[in-house]
Write a structure and sequence with these properties.
431 residues, alpha/beta, TIM Barrel, Immunoglobulin-like, 4-stranded parallel β-sheet
Length: 431
């Protein structure tokens, strides 16, 4: 049960029922300065007014905003059952992604429901005009990404839009209000949206299309691609349609057995089953599975686009925060074996794990640590100059022996990491 505290002040009091901060374990509210974050809040009105929530660590009542009483509904007992948090910024979200080793973020600008998560002059069905929020979260996220040095991309459902007349619904329309002309939808919604996204948010690294329906003819997709010229160097995936391969191939919820040879690719996957937040999703992947999936994807030449579904309050679920932190912990030690590497030079994966490479280096991701202390790299013919554990700050040399079957590396009895340990081989020439 969450702890409860009562805060008395002159003329007004309020009892706060708050979950402890998952970061500093002491804050009773979200702290704007990064000291903590809240996972739930309820109010019991015992006075004439509501008291601003104060972070115990920084003692600043401005560190969080709570919806004024007039915006809360009371039940028959006069109890305010739920408070509304107003997000004060995207700093913690971007920081968590960066700390996890991520280099770019792709956020949903508009999904199949047609609701735009940005302020738009093209159509009022957006988060600014259709809700009391009155802010543009994409603009705030863009500013924070630039501040923290993370590239930003937008997911955009260009063909499917269940709200706009004339747009597609892959499983069929179910309401007469959806009938209309696709070209009118394209002209009045999609193209203006794309122009706004390409001009109002600074540098955009990725436009992540979804989905390529039959309406995506070359003539229509050419109009959409013309908007992307506003962002030179932008990367697009292969879900636009109209015979457009895009720059990257997208695999969803799976890792292709051999990657996608000759093509830049990524795999988009969830931490559980659902893409959006679902409190009943109990099929959560462990941090070990997520880390090993990352290694598998990179060893096959791909990128890992890992989904996080925030709550209705705009918060990362606690298990997502934990998984990201655990991935980040592993990446702080082993990120060199992930970032900037290319696919394994070997046609088949070794029984003990996976391989990534950089010029002059092989990174052996050992998932199954050899019990006999002998790590065999089959098929390696290049001369090994030195070998060491990536987790070893001193880079103490490991003994290597070349033989007809490849190279044998003598490793310690204990693996540095129970999830995945990396052995580095510095080599001469090509492997």
């Amino acid at each position: 049960m969450p702890e409860t505290t009562t805060v008395p002040v002159v003329e007004k009091r309020i009892m706060l029922d708050l979950n402890r901060c998952i970061e500093c374990k002491s804050c009773m509210a979200a702290c704007y300065y990064g000291h903590g974050r809240i996972t739930g809040l309820s109010f019991v009105d015992i006075g004439p007014a509501l008291l601003p929530v104060v972070c115990r660590q920084c003692s600043d009542p401005a560190c969080i905003e709570v919806c004024p009483a007039k915006a809360m509904k009371r039940d028959a007992r006069g109890v305010v059952a739920r408070g509304l948090f107003l997000c004060r910024g995207c700093g913690s979200c971007v920081r968590m992604a960066k700390d996890a080793g991520m280099r770019y973020i792709v956020i949903t600008a508009k999904h199949h429901d047609g609701f735009a998560m940005f302020r738009s002059k093209a159509d009022p069905f957006n988060i600014y005009d259709a809700t009391p929020f009155k802010r543009d979260p994409l603009k705030e996220l863009a500013a924070e990404c630039q501040k923290q040095g993370i590239k930003l991309g937008f997911y955009y459902s260009q063909a499917q839009d269940w709200h706009q007349p004339g747009a597609d619904a892959v499983l069929g329309r179910w309401d007469k209000a959806q009938d209309g002309d696709f070209d009118v939808y394209l002209r009045n919604v999609v193209l203006p949206h794309l122009k706004e996204l390409m001009t109002n948010y600074g540098p955009i690294a990725v436009l992540w299309w979804d989905t390529a329906t039959g309406s995506m003819t070359p003539a229509r997709t050419d109009q959409m691609k013309a908007m992307l010229t506003l962002q030179p160097g932008i990367i697009t995936n292969n879900r636009l349609g109209g015979d457009n391969p895009g720059d990257t191939y997208t695999s969803e919820q799976e890792v292709p057995p051999n990657g996608v040879p000759g093509k830049d690719w990524e795999s988009c996957m969830t931490m559980g089953i659902h893409w959006g937040y679902n409190k009943n999703d109990k099929n959560l992947k462990s941090s070990a599975e997520l880390i090993r999936t990352l290694i598998d994807i990179v060893s096959k030449g791909g990128n890992y686009l890992l989904n996080v579904g925030p709550t209705a309050e705009g918060l990362f679920p606690e298990h997502n925060v934990q998984r990201l932190a655990e991935i980040g912990k592993w990446m702080k030690v082993n990120g060199e074996a992930i970032h900037g590497t290319t696919r394994s030079p070997f046609p088949t994966a070794p029984a003990w794990g996976r391989v990534t490479q950089k010029p002059g280096k092989l990174y052996l991701h050992v998932l199954n640590w050899p019990k006999d202390g002998k790590l065999v790299v089959p098929g390696l013919t290049a001369k090994v100059k030195t070998a060491y554990l990536l987790a070893d700050a001193n880079r103490a040399a490991l003994k290597t022996t070349a033989n007809a079957g490849g190279v044998e590396v003598a490793v310690p009895a204990q693996a540095p990491d129970t999830v995945a340990s990396v052995v580095v081989l510095e080599i001469e020439g090509k492997p």
